[in-house]
Amino acid sequence: MISKTLIVNGMTKTLLVNPEDSLADVLRGQLLLTSVNVGCGTGQCGACNVILDGKLVRTCTLKMKRVEDGAAVTTLEGIGTPEHMHPLQLSWMFHGGAQCGFCTPGLVMSSTAFIEKHKGQPVTREEIRRGHAGNLCRCTGYDAIIAAVESCLNDTPPQNTCACLRKPDGPCHHHQS
Fold first, then answer.
1. Could you tell me which residues come within 8 angstroms of residue 93 by beta carbon, excluding any fewer than 6 positions away?
2. CA 132 from chain center: how many Å?
3. Are strands 11-17 and 2-8 parallel, antiparallel or unpaired?
4. Other Cβ atoms within 10 Å of 56 Cβ, number
């Protein structure tokens, strides 16, 4: 076992970890950050994406012995809250980016990293699509996700998102597809 200090979603955490455990296992098992999903376990699908020291990484294959002490980790839980959603989360809701939800956290993290990297630059829909090439989703054609990212890059996220989109029983009649 080794001691690791990480800054997770802005909070310092000192952990005792097995150096062979994956960052995904530590985030889910010890810190209970369940947005970090393990889909393939081989770093191919992107469901386990987080931002580590400013870079998008696959946590299912990243062993703790390779994570620097003091590293900053951002998961979906660190992007926004239900009361104070990040503009990207609002845009995802507005454009219908989420499907079954399993891959959504990894895709939101990919989108967040893409937006940070390209903020203030002209970006085409094809570039956004290529920027998400490492994420696999069985439920969507990705068009809504691309639209949500494009909206955030253009600083045009929905300003007055109807509260009905957050209702547990689903959206009102004017937001249903």
1. 85, 158, 161, 165, 166
2. 11
3. antiparallel
4. 21
What are the pLDDT digits (tens) for 127-175?
Answer: 999 888 888 877 777 888 888 899 888 876 454 444 444 444 554 444 4
What is the 3-class SS of the chain, one letter each residue?
A: CEEEEEEECCEEEEEEECCCCEHHHHHHHCCCCCCCCCCCCCCCCCCCEEEECCEEEECCCCEHHHCCCCCEEECHHHCCCCCCCCHHHHHHHHHCCCCCCCCHHHHHHHHHHHHHHHCCCCCCHHHHHHHCCCCCCCCCCCHHHHHHHHHHHCCCCCCCCCHHHHCCCCCCHHHCC
**Phi and psi, residue 51, nearest 5°:** -105, 120
